[in-house]
């Protein structure tokens, strides 16, 4: 897999840091603007307050009335400049003639700037920025009134923009230092946050997580076993397709998500209470055996849920018996071939010596049912799975010394639909288990194929206990599900001294399947 140029840790760090830088930069801009505005408002307020203070001074009023500059008024304005760190305090007459100025040469000269008109002509206080003899400056103008409330002059107090810039520069330095400190702390936080997130993601890159997720989903959905995942509250959170099929069988629902696992599989609580990890435990419900494994899901030493793996034991049991039956079928074929040659030699020898009595006894012996059962299965049933199955069933009955003979008519053709054959064998096995439990000494079986159907007929004695128990068996959920899955049916007929159980299943031979394929003309 191609590695990314930047690791997830680096990208997270840069992303978080970028967000912090943008936020802090915006805050820096807004705070800087606020400082400028606040500083200017504060300076304007200071200028006007000082102007009002000087406008009430009697020395200033007397100088303006006489329109004469005196050393006292010059000292007063110089003291104000020094105390309030101002660049100039100018007292001017209504004719805009300066009576005070930091530069004595400018006294008795006209005031420059042009922004004093409002204060001179209308008698209102104003604040403005204009260029005078000292350069560009922030200036406040306050009119001076005598006792009769008549305007007699104007006081101009100001500070050059150079001085204001120095004040703002100092404020910006302090703010910039705070900004740098904030960015350094933000970098540390970004690195720590990115490292923590990377650890939460098990040190994996996004592409690696995506690949692992797809691999997990592919494995999860294609498992033959049913997989069920629960959380800490034992609620179902995840189920694969095989698990849905099994839950439909067990709980008759296709939507298990969010439900308690105990409501779907009641016996699972017993398994959970015994051990934390369970491997291959047998669970039985509705007559079907299931193989269950339970394992905890542990994250950072804490159990956050459980994973259950469930498999229908019917498939395993059927496969095991199929292998045994196939082995028995192969052995029968081998022995039949060998025995057939031996029998031919014996018959030829007895015929050659003319011992008719011995030949008759020998022929009767080889034609006995027990001797020719396997031969009939091989010759009359052309589906090896069914033939092997019946041979295996006969062995089960013989172990309990019970008769097992099957009449085959007509012959059973081969079929490619092995799944239906397997389900048919499951139904037959249920009936045989019942017959073995009843230890019947006498019953008859007939197996035949006609009209694309496989028909199995049992002739059973009319017994007051046997028949009700058989009816109960045939109406169990397990047997009923098998019938629905295979589209099969059964009938139980009372014939006086005996009952007939007829089990019918759709069965299409391989030859008929080939004939059903439509011809396509090119």
Protein model, in words:
This protein has 17 helices and 14 strands. It is of the alpha+beta class. It has 3 domains: 11-167, 2-Layer Sandwich (Beta-Lactamase), CATH 3.30.450; 210-312, PAS domain (Beta-Lactamase), CATH 3.30.450.20; 368-514, 2-Layer Sandwich (Heat Shock Protein 90), CATH 3.30.565.10. The strands form 3 sheets. A 5-stranded antiparallel beta sheet has the order 6-5-9-8-7. Strands 10-11-12-14-13 form a 5-stranded mixed beta sheet. Helix 12 runs antiparallel to helix 13 (384-399) and helix 13 (384-399) packs parallel to helix 14. It is rod-shaped and about 175 Å long. It starts with 7 loop residues before the first helix and ends in a 6-residue tail after the last helix.
Features:
phosphorelay sensor kinase activity; 3 domains; Beta-Lactamase; 5-stranded mixed β-sheet; alpha+beta; rod-shaped; 5-stranded antiparallel β-sheet
Overview in brief:
The chain is an alpha+beta fold and about 525 residues long.
What's the multimeric state? Answer: single chain
Number of strands: 14
What structural category do the secondary elements indicate?
Answer: alpha+beta
What is the CATH architecture descriptor of the largest domain? 2-Layer Sandwich
| The CATH fourth-level homologous superfamily of the largest domain | PAS domain
For the largest beta-sheet, the strand count, sense and barrel status come to: 5 strands, antiparallel
Radius of gyration: 54 Å
Could you estimate the helical fraction of the residues in percent? 40-55%
Subcellular location: Cell membrane
Domain SpoOB alpha-helical: 331-368
Transmembrane segments: 12-31, 175-197
Domain Single cache: 43-172
